[in-house]
Design goal:
The complex is a heterodimer of chains A (about 120) and B (about 110). Chain A is built from no helices and eleven strands. By secondary structure, chain A is an all-beta fold. In chain B, strand 5 and strand 6 form a beta hairpin. The chains are: A mainly beta (about 120), B mainly beta (about 110).
Chain lengths: ~120, ~110
């Protein structure tokens, strides 16, 4: 069974950098793209970006160059970095596995990241 | 970006009754490979979203057959034949024909 386990800081101050990591157990790591998705309180889902095992990545232009993803295939984990955070970045952040680059079939547990001074 | 518009945004249903949610996309989700890249998720309170339907009408593993999907091109719907208490939550449609992947606003189903 595929499991995604997220870790990272949950409280940040404005202008700081958000860093989250998602570890993958079970299933194939190299055969998929891996995504980050976020959900602001009481709001809908926003796709942040994706990365594969070679480091090939795509990001949502709405994040205007503040996002970077990285991967460590040997550890079966991938990471999200979001710079210059503001209150608008307060959200639950999810990592997820893409199936055939079409849909998300396995999700992490979610990490609430709060940006507050 | 492709805009996904869901209606209604909230739905109150009596157990045992049917329910339907509409999702319209701002461009066709039919790809030249013959697949239509529309998906439906359910997010229960405090949980991660879970996939219900993929490529218009295919139920994901373990999804009860009271859930069904239909549609083509830009107009799609998710139907529940008989709503049960465990079906409460927020339903989202999503497109993956084009990056960035985008979701509908969500439809909150209440009993």
């Amino acid at each position: 069974q595929v499991q995604l386990q997220q870790r990272g800081a949950g409280l940040l101050k404005p202008s700081e950098t958000l860093s989250l990591t998602c570890g993958v157990s079970g299933g194939s790591f190299g055969g998929h793209y891996w995504s980050w998705i976020r959900q602001a309180p009481g709001k809908g889902l926003e796709w942040i970006g994706e990365i594969n095992h070679t480091g090939s990545s795509n990001y949502n232009p709405s994040l205007k160059g503040r996002v970077t993803m990285s991967v460590d295939s040997s550890k079966r984990q991938f990471s999200l970095t979001l710079t210059s955070v503001t209150a608008a970045d307060t959200a639950v952040y999810y990592c997820a596995r893409e199936n055939n680059r079409s849909f998300f079939d396995f999700w992490g547990q979610g990490t609430l990241v709060t940006v507050s001074s | 970006d492709i805009v996904m518009t869901q209606t209604p945004l909230s739905l109150s249903v009596t157990p045992g009754q049917p329910a339907s949610i509409s999702c319209k996309s701002s461009r066709s989700l039919l790809h030249s490979d013959g697949k239509t890249y529309i998906y439906w998720y359910l997010q229960k309170t405090g949980q991660s979203p879970q996939l219900l339907i993929y490529e218009v009408s295919n139920r994901f593993s373990g999804v009860p057959d009271r859930f069904s999907g239909s549609g083509s091109g830009t107009d799609f719907s998710l139907s529940l034949s008989r709503v049960e208490a465990e079906d409460v939550g927020v339903y989202y449609c999503m497109q993956s024909i084009q990056l960035p992947y985008t979701f509908g606003q969500g439809t909150k189903l209440e009993i």
